[in-house]
Fold Cupin domain-containing protein.
Amino acid sequence: MTDSDQPPTPTERRRLEALEETPHAHLFDGEPQTIRLALADGERIPTHRHPDREIVLHVLEGHLTMSLGDDEYDVHEGGVVRFDGAQDISPKAQADTTALLVLARRTD
């Protein structure tokens, strides 16, 4: 069976404000992992890694300081960052913040 013989993936829809889990809420099952991150002002996610992932983070509201390896990046509302999940990652909210994360499997 070729890719063109595969049935199309059904369209799924979610509303971020309907998600109750904090700080991480998974929007959809399966790949790519799509997560709503909600952090209160001053809240930090401990340093961790996603070695098999490439990550895109979009700050929907608020302000995060992203520690990525030895560097820090300020990401404000509307900002988008793409990074390698194999490095040390630790976001810290500088204000109440909501962000959308997409974690895609590495293809290399």
Remarks:
- The chain is about 0% helix and 45% strand.
- The beta strands are 24-26, 33-39, 53-61, 63-68, 71-76, 80-84, 89-93, 97-105.
